[in-house]
């Protein structure tokens, strides 16, 4: 981008900064506006998730997984629960599977809304951020109807769910989807095709596919670089094979493939895909089936280990659970997608201007709770 | 106009008591205080307007005034006063490593820059503080004092973020004054004078005699002037100097309390000055759109202020719709788009007036 | 050169488009306004008509409450809490299932089980509670629950229980004077026997 | 000739399904008898499958597990041929236990070999197996062939050195820094091996089983004591 010369100034985009999506310090070498090197410093939000998991029982780990990625805690539960059920070979009935898919996809919509909103906010567009948060609140109302909580749910348990659906759930969700569908097009026009937004995001922070794979970047960021990789299809878990939805991939419509605009484009289209999935899931939702049916009284998995990946809104969320037969886990390791997304920042962010680097950081949509665990 | 009018009136009254010197000072002080009062009232109104308009755009209702304790008025009317009081009462921190004298000077300079350009603004037929014959030129010249104070503020608070903000604002305001000036030359060519009152008198007689509809090139000049005026007052999409999501608060990072209030106030005052100039030069100043209707000098003030408020509304509306431009895109737009368009415009208007020898 | 003009045209049309959208929002603010004037208009708690039968099943996440008359001191909730914010100390009851007037201890719970233990201390530290609702399920007497929701008749919703001092958030549910009352009774029994 | 053989086999299978096995047993020709038996097994399995579809998944997952096992075994054989005595300990079918010595060469081969093509390191987990044995586990995955493998490397706590694979997969850079931060396994050849989550001057390796947290850190009392609670 720019040839860097002259005396370098070290600048701390410090832990307390409006654009770092949480508590993250970027130590940045700049010459004027052009940034030559970024070294992220993390750990400000480290709450020893893995050490906690070694001292609590398997059910009690679930409230801790909520608090890792607090913007998508339903999918964090989902990942842990799928891994545990595969470890203990538990087969849950269809009603539970469908409710889990509905909840995970609604949470994906809510998390993408906030991801795109914050990305727009980093570039200065304040109003779309508030419109998206307004719609996110409606999804949180639906979650609150079901399990009482709005942000950290502890809803999906090993072998079932904590609560069954309330009677008014299906109508409320369908009303929301009908209300929300036209709004997605409005967001795309208000933000996506706005020339200043395109000028600020096209051809910026280009992440080629090999760099993405070698850095282990996954999820919308990887799909933005043109790699068609979605765990719900390529490494299927739960009942995702019963729904037909396609995987949006960055095509470089406004610039080269893999730039910030493509990541934005992939997220907007993923919201539309999730709406399709929720609609299909609600049609096929079986009426009967008790959500507590497959729940073991005492969770004591057989000795052994399992590594299971699921598709969280930020990418491959992997749980490595090692159990030694007792009722507390021997070791739980969470592979966090935002952790690898942040590691690629220096590779694709160096050489750009100051406001671009913060735009790129916003387009990667990281959450520090998940990175620091 | 009012200064000499006051001077004659007072000198008859008190000439025997005190010499002509103090009378001149008094006759200058009175309009100053009136202007200062006008600015503070106007600032409260425009803060309230910004709160309400931005909230409506974002599907909110803005401050509504319910709630325990200090009531914010029926429709949140007391909210701007509450803001002003808060800023006055807040502790005024000066960072220890800051360059004290410059740090203290910067807010006053920026306010003076905005304040003295009010002098040449025509509010009505005879309501103008000083009817300078170089009115427009004076306003443009005085407007650039703001640049100095922004750099001063950026440099003196000894903070990397404000340094960035200061440098960016220097580049932005200086470079956007050129397209603004060039597009005003179109007005001067048509009106033939620099005197604000004469420019407005030139546009007498109904809406279609305004300079805006004089010939097809002037609307382009109006748009160029209006957008570069937005850039001059650091409003989105050009609010890079104090972009809250990148530079924390740009040049105003270290300021708090009363000094921050001055930056705030002068931003709104600049907005008023710029929109008043646009209203006076392009939209027929204190003339009413329909020639006979409500055209008396008293109504002139109403028309002038309503046109200015309409332009301010557009500025607020733009602020809550568009994202922010990057620094080099900012320069790119100014030098590669506005400058050539403004130059071609002057050329176009010249040919048009010669061909149709108005 | 052509790109120069398309750029200008594109930016003008997209900016005007964007402004059009915000203008529509400006005029329609009255009916899709989302703000809630907090002290007057409280957050509407979704009334929870649960599909299945246990009508008093509580799914609200707010402050915890314990009916001490029903608590049999089985420590299940204490074990279920992931953040160990519940502390219970129990003593052997002099006689199983009898009320003890002195310390207002009821012998038989609402579900009819006869209590063998007297709970002298039942503290929940709400500042550490993570509102995960894991303690409500194992309770055999269903005496620990979060206030509000379907049992709002007994305890209205209460999510405004913030305190200036953090240690006031430690809720002590054991009845006043049970500890020393019980000691007195035991002491009497020794002297009596 | 072969049609009537088919006929005999199908008849025999029909009868066997009803229970009397002797018709199959007394087919003289050995070849047709074995064919009939195979057809019988297939018919039985098909019948079982058509009854409840859940068992179908078991068969599918069964075959998947089988396939995974023999994939691991073939990989084990290939590794031991190419790199002598790098397999540590006995053959196991869920993961591959390697010695730390030539792990870097194996990693490069795993990634570059066209037929294996493990191009993405999914996750690296540190593990404290007790009695001073640390272990670093790598879950590898190939985007092209969609097959996975788990590689484990045991190392003693006194000399916890494992060659770093950070040149092979760039994601290992931060994964290894985190394992170092939590377990103290130092990865030789790593670009800048320092703590990633904890402050740089924190003593001790938190996730080891024998870890006691330090009393104060820069004067701040680490274990949070709360008054009025105990």
Defining traits:
heterotetramer, B: 358 residues, mainly alpha, globular, D: 230 residues, alpha/beta, 6 helices, 8 strands, 17% strand
Strand-helix topology:
The complex is a heterotetramer of chains A (373), B (358), C (193) and D (230).
Chain A: E1 9-13, E2 25-31, E3 34-41, H1 49-53, H2 58-66, H3 73-87, H4 94-122, H5 126-147, E4 156-157, E5 160-161, H6 169-192, H7 195-201, H8 209-214, H9 220-224, H10 231-234, H11 260-283, E6 304-312, E7 315-323, E8 331-335, H12 337-343, H13 345-349, H14 354-364, H15 368-372
Antiparallel strand pairs in A: 1-2, 2-3, 4-5, 6-7, 7-8
Helix pairs in contact in A: 2-3, 3-4, 4-5, 4-11, 4-14, 5-6, 6-11, 11-14
Chain C: H1 2-27, E1 64-66, H2 76-80, E2 86-92, E3 117-125, E4 144-146, E5 170-172, H3 178-192
Antiparallel strand pairs in C: 1-4, 2-3, 3-5
Chain D: H1 2-18, H2 22-25, H3 30-51, H4 53-82, E1 96-98, H5 103-112, E2 120-128, E3 133-141, E4 148-156, E5 161-163, H6 172-183, E6 186-188, E7 216-217, E8 220-221
Parallel strand pairs in D: 1-4, 5-6
Antiparallel strand pairs in D: 2-3, 3-4, 7-8
Helix pairs in contact in D: 1-3, 3-4
How would you describe what is shown here?
The complex is a heterotetramer of chains A (373), B (358), C (193) and D (230). Chain A has 373 residues and is an alpha+beta fold. Chain A is built from 15 helices and eight strands. In chain A, the strands form three sheets. A three-stranded antiparallel beta sheet of chain A has the order 1-2-3. Chain A has a three-stranded antiparallel beta sheet with strand order 6-7-8. In chain A, strand 4 and strand 5 form a beta hairpin. Chain A is globular, with a radius of gyration of 21 Å. The mean pLDDT of chain A is 89. Chain B is built from twelve helices and no strands. The two termini of chain B are 30 Å apart. Chain C is an alpha+beta fold. Chain C has two domains: 31 residues; 129 residues, Alpha-Beta Plaits. About 5% of the residues of chain C have low confidence. Chain D is an alpha/beta fold and 230 residues long. In chain D, 41% of the residues lie in helices and 17% in strands. Chain D has a four-stranded mixed beta sheet with strand order 1-4-3-2. Chains in contact: A-B, A-C, A-D, B-C, C-D.
């Amino acid at each position: 981008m720019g040839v860097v010369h002259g005396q370098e100034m070290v600048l701390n985009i410090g832990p307390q900064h409006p654009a770092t999506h949480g508590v993250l310090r970027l130590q940045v070498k700049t010459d004027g506006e052009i940034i030559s090197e970024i070294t992220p410093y993390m750990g400000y939000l480290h709450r020893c998730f893995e050490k906690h998991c070694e001292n609590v029982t398997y059910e009690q780990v679930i409230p801790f997984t909520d608090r890792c990625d607090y913007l998508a805690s339903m999918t964090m539960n989902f990942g842990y629960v799928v891994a545990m059920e595969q470890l203990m070979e538990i087969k849950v009935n269809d009603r539970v599977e469908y409710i889990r898919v509905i909840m995970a996809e609604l949470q994906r919509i809510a998390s993408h809304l906030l991801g795109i909103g914050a990305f727009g906010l980093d570039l200065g567009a304040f109003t779309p951020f508030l419109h998206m948060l307004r719609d996110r609140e409606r999804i949180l109302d639906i979650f609150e109807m079901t399990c009482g909580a709005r942000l950290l749910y502890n809803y999906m348990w090993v072998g079932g769910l904590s609560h069954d659906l309330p009677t008014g759930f299906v109508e409320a969700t369908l009303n929301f989807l009908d209300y929300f569908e036209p709004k997605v097009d409005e967001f795309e026009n208000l933000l996506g095709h706005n020339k200043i937004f395109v000028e600020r995001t096209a051809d910026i922070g280009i992440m080629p596919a090999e760099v993405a794979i070698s850095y282990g970047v996954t999820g919308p960021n990887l799909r933005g670089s043109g790699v068609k990789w979605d765990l719900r299809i390529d490494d299927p878990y739960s009942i995702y094979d019963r729904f037909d939805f396609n995987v949006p991939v960055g095509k470089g419509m406004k610039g080269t493939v893999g730039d910030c605009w493509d990541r934005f484009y992939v997220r907007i289209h993923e919201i539309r895909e999730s709406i399709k999935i929720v609609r299909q899931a609600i049609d096929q939702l079986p009426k009967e089936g008790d959500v507590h049916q497959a729940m073991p009284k005492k969770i004591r998995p057989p000795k052994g280990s399992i590594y299971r990946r699921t598709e969280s809104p930020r990418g491959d969320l992997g749980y490595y659970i090692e159990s030694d037969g007792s009722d507390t886990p021997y070791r739980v390791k969470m592979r966090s997608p935002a952790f690898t997304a942040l590691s690629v920042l220096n590779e694709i962010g160096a050489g750009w201007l100051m406001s671009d680097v913060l735009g790129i950081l916003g387009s990667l949509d990281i959450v520090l709770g998940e990175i620091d665990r | 106009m009012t200064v000499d009018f006051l001077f004659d009136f007072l000198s008859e009254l008190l000439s025997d008591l005190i010499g002509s010197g103090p009378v001149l000072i008094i006759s200058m002080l009175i309009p100053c205080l009136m202007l200062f009062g006008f600015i503070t009232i106007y600032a409260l109104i425009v803060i309230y307007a910004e709160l309400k308009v931005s909230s409506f755009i974002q599907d909110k209702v803005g401050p509504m005034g319910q709630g325990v304790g200090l009531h914010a008025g029926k429709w949140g009317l007391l909210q701007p006063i509450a803001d002003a009081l808060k800023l006055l009462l807040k502790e005024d921190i000066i960072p220890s490593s800051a360059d004290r004298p410059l740090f203290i000077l910067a807010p006053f300079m920026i306010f003076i820059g905005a304040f003295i350009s009010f002098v040449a603004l025509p509010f009505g037929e005879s309501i103008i503080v000083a009817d300078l014959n170089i009115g427009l030129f004076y306003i443009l010249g005085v407007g650039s004092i703001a640049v100095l104070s922004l750099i001063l503020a950026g440099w003196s608070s000894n903070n990397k973020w404000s340094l960035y903000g200061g440098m960016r604002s220097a580049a932005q305001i200086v470079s956007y004054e050129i397209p603004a000036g060039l597009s005003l030359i179109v007005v001067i060519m048509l009106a033939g004078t620099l005197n604000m009152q004469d420019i407005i008198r030139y546009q007498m007689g109904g809406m279609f005699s305004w300079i805006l509809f004089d010939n097809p090139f002037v609307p382009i000049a109006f748009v160029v002037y209006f957008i570069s005026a937005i850039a001059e007052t650091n409003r989105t999409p050009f609010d890079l100097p104090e972009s809250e999501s990148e530079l924390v608060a740009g040049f105003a990072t270290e300021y708090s309390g009363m000094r921050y209030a001055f930056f705030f106030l002068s931003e709104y005052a600049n907005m008023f000055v710029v929109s008043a100039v646009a209203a006076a030069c392009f939209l027929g100043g204190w003339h009413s759109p329909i020639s006979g209707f409500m055209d008396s000098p008293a109504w002139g003030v109403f028309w002038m202020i309503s046109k200015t408020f309409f332009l301010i509304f557009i500025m607020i509306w733009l602020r809550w719709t568009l994202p922010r431009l990057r620094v080099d895109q900012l320069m790119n737009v100014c030098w590669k788009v506005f400058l050539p368009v403004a130059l071609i415009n002057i050329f176009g208007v010249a040919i048009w007036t010669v061909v149709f020898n108005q | 050169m052509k790109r120069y003009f398309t750029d200008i045209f594109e930016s003008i049309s997209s900016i005007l488009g964007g402004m059009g959208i915000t203008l529509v929002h400006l005029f329609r603010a009255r009916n899709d306004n989302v703000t809630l004037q907090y002290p007057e208009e409280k957050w509407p708690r979704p009334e929870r008509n649960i599909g299945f039968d246990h009508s008093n099943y509580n799914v609200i996440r707010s402050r915890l409450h314990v009916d001490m008359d029903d608590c049999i001191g089985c420590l299940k909730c204490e074990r279920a809490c992931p953040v160990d914010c519940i502390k219970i100390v129990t003593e052997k009851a002099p006689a199983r299932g009898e009320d003890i007037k002195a310390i207002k201890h009821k012998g038989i719970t609402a579900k009819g089980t006869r209590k063998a233990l007297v709970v002298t201390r039942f503290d929940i530290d709400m500042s550490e509670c993570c509102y995960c609702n894991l303690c409500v399920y194992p309770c055999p007497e269903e005496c620990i629950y979060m206030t509000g929701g379907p049992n709002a008749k007994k305890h209205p919703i209460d999510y405004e229980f913030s305190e200036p001092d953090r240690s006031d958030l430690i809720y002590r549910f054991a009845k006043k004077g049970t500890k020393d009352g019980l000691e007195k009774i035991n002491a009497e029994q020794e002297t009596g026997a | 000739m072969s049609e009537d053989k088919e006929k005999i086999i199908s008849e025999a299978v029909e009868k066997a399904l009803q229970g009397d096995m002797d018709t199959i047993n007394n087919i003289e020709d050995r070849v047709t008898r074995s064919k009939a038996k195979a057809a019988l097994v297939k018919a039985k399995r098909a019948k079982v499958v058509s009854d409840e579809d859940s068992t179908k998944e078991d068969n599918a997952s069964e075959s998947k597990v089988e396939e995974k096992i023999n994939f691991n075994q073939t990989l084990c054989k290939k590794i031991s041929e190419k790199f002598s005595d790098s397999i540590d300990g006995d053959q196991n079918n869920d993961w591959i236990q390697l010695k730390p010595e030539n792990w870097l060469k194996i990693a490069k081969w795993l990634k570059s070999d066209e037929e294996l093509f493990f191009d993405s390191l999914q996750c690296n987990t540190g593990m404290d197996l007790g009695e001073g044995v640390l272990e670093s586990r790598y879950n590898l995955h190939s985007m092209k062939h969609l097959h996975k493998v788990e590689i484990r490397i045991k190392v003693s706590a006194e000399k916890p050195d494992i060659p770093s694979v950070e040149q092979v997969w760039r994601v290992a850079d931060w994964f290894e820094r985190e394992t170092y931060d939590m377990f103290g396994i130092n990865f030789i050849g790593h670009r800048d091996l320092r703590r990633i989550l904890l402050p740089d001057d924190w003593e001790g390796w938190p996730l080891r089983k024998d870890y006691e947290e330090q009393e104060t850190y820069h004067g701040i009392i680490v274990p949070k004591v709360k008054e009025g609670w105990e």
